[in-house]
Amino acid sequence: MKVTVIGGGHGCFAAAAEFAEKGHDVCWWRRDAAAHRAVKDAGGLQVKDRNGSRHVPISNLTSDLRAAVSGAEVIVIPLPATTHEDLAEKMAGLFESGQVVYLPPGTFGSYLFARKLQQVQPGVDVSFAETGTLPYLARKHGPAEVVVSGYATRLPTGVFPARNSEHAFAALEQVYPAVERCEDALSGALMNAGPIIHPPLILMNAGPLEHFETWDIHNEGTQPSIRRVTDSLDQERIDLRKTLGYKAPHFPLKDHYAQEGDEWMYGRAAHDELTDSGDWREDIDLRTHRYMLEDTAIGLSFFSSVGRWAGQPMHIAEGMLAIASAITGTNLYASGRTFESLGLANKSVAEVQEILQKGYTN
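^ thats the sequence. predicted structure below, dont judge the formating
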C-alpha cells in the first residue's frame, strides 16, 4: 500500500520505520529538507525495540508536500494537534478523492481537516480518521535513530464522515491491524488518552517539574493521589461518551496500569516498559511543553466544550483547565479547540449526528 508519513516527530520516525519494515511503499515528508539529511545519508533509520536493534531502509524522502500527498492511499499524520491548523491549510488543496487521512490521536482534528477541505475543494471526498493515542511509545535518539518502547495493540478509531467508514477501515486495517472500529469521529476523539493522563501529571507535579532539572511524571510523578484524580477525570470522559450514546468499550485509563482484566491500548505492562526505558525523564516547561499546549490547551478545552454542549458536567476537566490557564496566563478555553470555535455549539444533537454521518457542509 502507498503510505505517506507527515512530520518529523517521535511518532513519525516510528511510523516510517514500521511501514517500511512491513513492506509498504513509504513516502516520508518533512517540512525542512535538511532535517532528512541524516536519514538520507544513512539510507534509512536505526530502530531499537523489543525485537532488538536493526537498520530499516527508507529511500523516498521529500519536503515537497504536493508530491507527498499525490497518489497516496493512506496519509498518516502522527503529530501534535498544535500542527493541525497549519497542515489543514497547506494540505486542503492537495487531497484527492478516495484518500484516507489518519490522525493518531486527533482531538477532533478530523472535523477540522474536513471543514478546510470542503472550503477549498468542495466535493472532494476524503476520509479522515482519528484514534485515542499515538500508536507508539517512542523517542528519537538521534537524527536517524528511534527507540520504540511499545506498540499499540488496540487503536479505537472513528471516521469522518462516518458514511465512509467501510472504505476507510478497509485501508487502515492494512496499515494498522490494531484498529478497532468506533461509531464516528467524535467517538474516536473522545477516546483520546492524552487530555486524561497528562494534565493531572503536569499540574499536580508542577513543583517538582520547576525545581528539578528533569523529572519523570510517569514514574515518581504517578502517585496514588494523582491516579485518583486521573481516574475521576477519565470517568467524566466515559460519562460524556455514555450521555452521547456511544457504546463500550470506553477504554478506561485505569486499565493501562492494571496487571489483569481488559487490555488497554498499549497492551499489558506498557506502563512498566515506559518507565523502565528512562526516555520520559525530561525537562517539562509548563508554558511550552506539548502536554500543556496540546493535551491541556486543546484536549481539555475540547472535552470541556463537548460536555457543555451535551449538558454533561465536567468539573475536574474545567478545574484543571482553569489551573492551567492561571499557570500560563492565558484563557485556554477561549483559545482552545472547542465546539464554539468549530461552529458546532449552537447545533442540536441531531444536527451534529447528521454532520458526523454525512460530512461537513458550508
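The mean pLDDT is 94.
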